[in-house]
Design goal:
mainly beta, seven-stranded mixed beta sheet, four-stranded antiparallel beta sheet, 0% helix, globular
Amino acid sequence: VQLQAFGGGSVQAGGSLRLSCAVSGINFRLVTVAWYRQVPGKGRELVGTITSNSTTNYADSVKGRSTISRDNVRNTLYLQMNNLKPEDAAVYYCNLNSYGRQFWGQGTLVTVSS
């Protein structure tokens, strides 16, 4: 199983970014996938999840500003982030859990300037 995240970058506060995560090696349409983020010195924080039937859940910190979606044809997970705040700056990781085993993408860096 491989996950490859991309789309990070540097934006000003109030701006938007869309992160993508290409997934291979698993029947993508059947799994719940997630986005996490991490800042130096802290643990990984769950940003949100999307189930196989596209039910989503979000952390309170991003709720209303972020949308997780999936394309089961392209085997790709997305995270649309709007109205970005400096506290959203982090390395963002995509994740899936298959039979109790965690798989992670390599992370993509988001910086937000005030």
